[in-house]
Design a protein that fits this description.
The chain has about 130 residues and is mostly beta strands. About 10% of the residues lie in helices and about 55% in strands. The chain has helices at about 15-20, 25-30; strands spanning about 5-10, 40-45, 45-55, 60-65, 70, 80-85, 90-95, 100-110, 115-120, 125. A hairpin with a 4-residue loop joins strand 3 (about 45-55) and strand 4.
């Protein structure tokens, strides 16, 4: 399965609690809740180019499955980890550099939607 496509985030479940657990302050959480996030994924074999863009931010990430890399989230949180395929699921396991906590992101395509679940300390957010 390839993940090529562009998806607009139209809903987020448990967003506020997850962002609070991430350490994002209330002002940034309120702004980010209305940022019209769009995710574009280009996959060529095991290589990926991901662009996340919104009203307030834009980041681009290149990675190869199974290869550890470092990057920063839009709020400046620095992470190190890798993405892997588990069947039709794209799973990323990352460690925060500032506090050593593990952030897991799972992406799967269901029909014509990209479903993404992020988990930090058993607090999950689904978009």
């Amino acid at each position: 399965m390839t993940f090529n496509g562009t998806w607009k985030v139209d809903r987020s479940e448990n967003y506020e609690k997850f962002m609070e657990q991430m350490g994002v302050n209330m002002v940034k959480r309120k702004l980010a809740a209305h940022d019209n996030l769009k995710i574009t994924i280009e996959q060529t074999g095991e290589n990926f180019h991901v662009k996340e863009s919104s009203n307030f931010r834009s980041i681009e990430i290149n990675f190869t499955l199974g290869v550890t890399f470092e990057y920063s989230l839009a709020d400046g949180t620095e992470l190190s980890g890798a993405w892997n395929m588990e069947g039709d699921t794209l799973k990323g396991v990352f460690t925060r550099k500032d506090n050593g906590k593990q952030l897991t992101t799972v992406r799967i395509i269901q029909g014509d939607e990209l479903v993404q679940v992020r988990d930090l300390n058993s607090v999950a957010m689904q978009v």
